[in-house]
Amino acid sequence: MNKQLLLGAEAIALGALDAGISGVYAYPGTPSTEITEYIQKNSGRRDHPVRSAWSANEKTAYEAALGMSYAGKRTLVCMKHVGLNVAADAFINSAITGVNGGLVVAVADDPSMHSSQNEQDSRVYGKFAMVPVVEPASQQELYDVTRYAFDLSESVELPVLLRLTTRLAHSRAGVKSTATRIQNPLNALYAPERFVLMPHNARRQYNNLLGMQERLEELSEQSSLNRLIPGSGKMGLLAFGIAFNYVMEVRQACGLNFPILKIGHYPLPRKQIEALFNTCETILVAEEGYPVYEELLRGYFGLQNGKQIKGRLDGTLPRAGELNADSVAHALGVTKKEVLAVPSIMVNRPPELCKGCGHRDLYEALNTVMRSCKEQHVFSDIGCYTLGALAPYNAIHTCVDMGASITMAKGAADAGLRPAVAVIGDSTFTHSGMTGLLDAINDHSPLTVIIADNDTTAMTGGQNSSANGSKLQAICLGLGVEEAHLRTIIPLKSHLAENIEVLRQEINWDGVSVVIAVRECIETAARKKRNPSANV
Amino acid sequence: MQINIILAGVGGQGILTIAAVIDLAALQSGLIVRQAEVHGMSQRGGAVQSHLRIADQEIYSDLIAEGTANLILSVEPLEALRYLPFLASEGRIVTSTDLFINMEGYPAMEHIHAELHRTNRPVLVNAAELARKAGNPRTSNMVMLGAAAPFTGLASQELEASIEKLFRAKGDEIVAMNIRAFRTGKALSQPQASNT
Ligand code: SF4
Fold this sequence. Notes:
The structure holds 2 protein chains of 2 kinds.
Chain A: E1 4-7, H1 8-18, E2 23-26, H2 33-42, H3 58-70, E3 75-80, H4 81-97, E4 103-109, H5 123-129, E5 133-134, H6 139-156, E6 160-165, H7 166-169, E7 171-175, H8 192-195, H9 199-222, E8 227-229, E9 235-240, H10 243-254, E10 260-263, E11 265-266, H11 270-279, E12 282-286, H12 292-298, E13 308-310, H13 325-331, H14 358-371, E14 378-380, E15 398-399, H15 404-414, E16 421-425, H16 426-442, E17 447-453, H17 469-479, E18 486-489, H18 496-508, E19 512-518, H19 522-530
Parallel strand pairs in A: 2-3, 3-4, 4-6, 5-6, 9-10, 9-12, 12-13, 14-15, 14-16, 16-17, 17-19, 18-19
Antiparallel strand pairs in A: 1-7, 5-11, 8-10
Chain B: E1 2-10, H1 15-28, E2 32-36, E3 47-55, E4 69-74, H2 77-82, E5 87-96, H3 109-117, E6 123-125, H4 127-134, H5 140-148, H6 156-167, H7 172-189
Parallel strand pairs in B: 1-4, 4-5, 5-6
Antiparallel strand pairs in B: 1-3, 2-3
Helix pairs in contact in B: 1-6, 4-5, 4-7, 5-7, 6-7
The complex binds iron/sulfur cluster.
């Protein structure tokens, strides 16, 4: 079959479709969004439907995936690394229940934080849950391994975590695909002893999981993702995930010949690592992410039986950020060639809200109102409107995690801060904001929540959000917001004066109020106009 | 054979369309391609770049190492300079001279020119004007691709075939306009592409 040029994220999507998934569940998040988008665009051409609409958040996505697996079908669930924090409860417990139809959770980490609040390493979660983790190093491997991961999941009856990072997710290469496997038939599993996690069941299931570990390690030993590239010399390389690519790049470019053990399947293949350690005096551990296994290999007291271990922890490689061929070359002692410097006249070009974006008009109005307040704190959230933190608006003062605007404002209000103002988007509100608003209402915490309703999940490229417009109003009323303090404004220049007035009234009111600022994202609107059939 | 290209610009300027044409042409020429791109926050008017690697043997790293880019192709002059550490000593810059100013402290054009001229025979392209002359100001990216074509190691016929393929759905008129823009750019840079 011909090669197609695919992003790493798309290679996973194609692999999952060809592995016979019946559904994908996901909440958008860079760099994982394109997995689900590819399935949404391409599943229509398949013989059997594949459900693919966006979920409200990663937890609802994961649980729905577990349900589909319970019913016997294969399912993919995708998220960015911090999304796994949201889904962690379901994820960890699904390792205790185990699965029926193959369940693969593709988690895209973002080392160097290109578009994220942290660079947490999802392999830690895999270890925590004690499930197999696969970490391919190329787009072709992503395709092949996604297919394999479903077989693996069904054979060990556990979810499989597929970890990738930004570089691979957002890099294109030619990928060859193979024949599509047909979907599993409906085959719901009646097994309350596994799925009712009351203590007596949970204890037994947990013991089963512990008992599985040896077999999982055995599977890692046999996996083609863990393999030795033979070489010579006293230094050996342990290259995890796409760190392998950088190591190979340097080896090829500099004509070096050290042995490399490529790792892409966890738990670690103990015997293979032992073999490498036996032939080398020094081991350089290159991990794309946290030094998770470097720390383990060093041991708590740093004893390594006379072997020297180098890596991120001793500064041989940088402690933070993604690796590249240059940092690996440096770690291997390759002398750096002279390169041109970035000229001193260079200035940063930070991202900004689009010209004509409704958030601009919202912030202009909000800033006017806040300027007249003694305390001027605005709690915000994750989305395009986070860019309001930058000049010229400097309008928001927190952005921590999905939904934290409302709950942090509530806590600050409880502490006595007046006014307590939160700005959150429509998609973020349905992701994790609603429950916080309920807390505030139940607790009579005086705060003003501004929902910037642009009818889409804009930052990740304009995916449908779970609720907007009248549905958002109904949610707020249902949660208990008083009708008189549920206001709607249209963030347009021409409405500036009246918007200021509405915001001033609600911010000054000593109770829970919600102002919904309704105006469609102009980017999404333009995209819909170009391609009216696309509603994702 | 191995060609490393850094594509540079500002989020929203459409450098990924240029990348798509080169990718396709390379693939059609039987070559191996890796192309790393930027999605997410910086696409909103921030500095964006794409690392594009073409070779006739396996490529390992998605990223280009410092000092190994044969070409920096930028649709904005300041952005060309941002990636100078990647440029190989014999590498070339092909950049548009059309400024995109959306931040504080944008340097004076003469300083940008001076820095560009410190590199190995930069190719400066008044892309917007050439695109207008070719029939449509919106084809300036294809002018830039044309100007960069002699440095990509790819045959112009392949690049033109890819332009045709990518724009075919939009009709013959659009295809012809983009090919015209491509040729205008190429005519400008061809004389500057001869041996160093
Ligand atoms: S993508 Fe939409 S919401 Fe985001 S900045 Fe642009 S117009 Fe505003």
